[in-house]
Every structure is written in C-alpha cells, then in structure tokens.
Amino acid sequence: MDMELRGKTVVITGGSKGIGLACAEAFAAEGCDLLLSARDPAMLDTAAASLRARFQVGVRVLAADLSADAEREKLHAMAPDADILVNNAGAIPSGGIADISVERWKAAWDLKVFGYIHLCQLFLPAMLARKSGVIVNIIGMAGRAPKGGYIAGAAGNAALIAFTHALGGQTQNDKVRVFGINPAVTATDRMETQARFNAAQKLGDAERWRETLTGLPLGRPIEPREIAELAVFGASPRGASINGTVLDVDSGGMHRI
Description:
Layout: E1 9-13, H1 18-29, E2 33-38, H2 41-55, E3 59-63, H3 69-78, E4 84-87, H4 102-111, H5 113-130, E5 134-138, H6 151-171, E6 177-183, H7 189-203, H8 224-235, E7 246-249
Parallel strand pairs: 1-2, 1-4, 2-3, 4-5, 5-6, 6-7
Helix pairs in contact: 1-8, 3-5, 4-5, 5-6
C-alpha cells in the first residue's frame, strides 16, 4: 500500500537505534528523506549509510544531546520546513521515588518531556503557516498504566500524553496533526537496560534480566517495526483522521484479566 509520503522530509530524534531507527527504515521505505539525530556519531553514520544504500533516499544526521535547548535549535535549523517530526529520543531511568535524585530526574525530563515540547514549539510554526504537517510523539504505556518502580517515566509519559491531546486539539484548525504512540515492552536496548535494573532490584543479579520479561501479552515483546509502521500510517494521508489521540500498543496488556 502506497502511503503517499514520497519526497517528504522527516525528522526523527533518537534515530540511530531501537524504535527511532525502525521509524527511519519505515519512512525511508516510503521514499522519504530523513534527518536523524542521536548522541552517538558513529552509530548515526552507520545507520545513515545503511539507509542510503538500501532505500536510495537522502539521509542527513546530527550528533547532538537533545536535552540542551541549543542542540534542539540546531536540529530545527537543519530542516525548518520538515513535513513530519517524530519525537522519540528519551532515556528516563527506572526506579522508585527514593532511587532517583532530583538532578537525575530533571536531566531525564530535559531530554524527553521538555525536549518533545520544545521541538514542537520549534517545528510547529512553519507547519501552521503552510497548513500541513504531522508530529508523532513516541511516548510509552507507563503514562497510561503508571507503576511506582518507574515513577519518573510514568509521570513524564503522562504529561506528554496530556500535552499531545491538547496540542492536537489546537492544531487541527490549521490542518496540522499531532498524535502519539504508547509502546509497551519493546525489543530494544532500552528494554534490556530496564530489565537489568529490575533484575538487580528483585533478583539481586542484573544478569538474570531475561527472567523479568515474563507474562507479556502474546508471549513476546513488541517489535520496533510494529511501532514504526504505525507511525508511518498515522503520519500519512491514509491516517488523515488520526489527530489529538495517543494510540496504546500493548497487546491488550492493560486490560488483561
């Protein structure tokens, strides 16, 4: 199915691995040109070279710490008229209220929560002026089903869910769409990092992290490409009515009996 996205410019944060890289692959497969940002320049360069070779699309990269205002502004300056923004960069640590210092909490929110908000502020004006554009916020199920063991992430994700609802409700008058996706446990490096923390806390051994990944709906983690393909559909003209909502992708786990 043609998603009618060929020639569009897509900015993806956290685009060197995991869900971000899967989004890059899925948009590139539709003929989109890409601007990817992440912290690790070597990983970005490797990802970009692979995407160019496989899909024959334009791929630019910016190695940056997007927890900093100036770095986000630099990213925007590279593609001020981008058609689609995918906010995906984030690394909020696991832990309860006593495990995370306020300094670490603020640093994590500077990247994901305030990072998403600021990038929307930067990219939206051009979209609103031309009356076209889509913003996709990759958020997370912890915002919908909060747990004390991931309290900073749960609170941050809940804030971004509300932000996405409110922003989509406002931008629809100018034909700009904003929607979010809440992935549950997804097979990424971050999944392993969080599972290692949980294993250390519960089992006393981080190396037993695989033992914490039990009881998953459908018996497996979500694949990054599943989130990416949903992002592509939602951002395409075929998903033209998807706006101001956040789509839960958890295989029904939140409602499990």
